[in-house]
Amino acid sequence: MNELTTIEKLTLAQAIFKVVGDAVSTKNPDSVRAQVDEEMLKAYELDGIKSRDLRVNGQKVGTYSVRVSKPKTERVMSETDHDAFVKWAGENPEICTLFALNQAAKLAQFALDTAGELPDGYEINHVVIPEHATGTTLKVDVQKVAQAMGNELPSVVAGLLET
Length: 163
Description:
This protein is of the alpha+beta class. The protein folds into two domains: 6-68 and 133-161, no CATH class; 72-129, no CATH class. 47% of the residues lie in helices and 25% in strands. It has seven helices and five strands. The strands form two sheets. A three-stranded antiparallel β-sheet has the order 1-2-5. It has a two-stranded antiparallel sheet with strand order 3-4. The radius of gyration is 28 Å and the shape is elongated. It starts with 5 loop residues before the first helix and ends with a helix.
């Protein structure tokens, strides 16, 4: 095959980009990436596996990992007695003029923030949100893939992988 011109290289690269882009898309639920993401996320949920090596012909060429949130504790305010809250609101008109009663949660938070007082009929609970998967990260070393594929990689594609 003759040496490709610059425009031919661009055309070939764009064609490959479109096909490969669809295969690695995280937005396409039918893509190869989506299928592997599903497998990785299941492995994390079942066994706590957060990372695996990517190998081509036995050679490590990258890593595939699950991004994980840190566990955290959040304060959650909830209404426990609406009648007690309505009574409290009637006794605190200076605060309540800012909110309609259908905005009770906002009013309760405002009262807590400004007056340091939790309104009657409300309580605060601490909820622990455990570590959970937030997505995946795919890291591939292009040169290592090219080397691992060796002669199996068509020369036109191998040329595109050279940087």
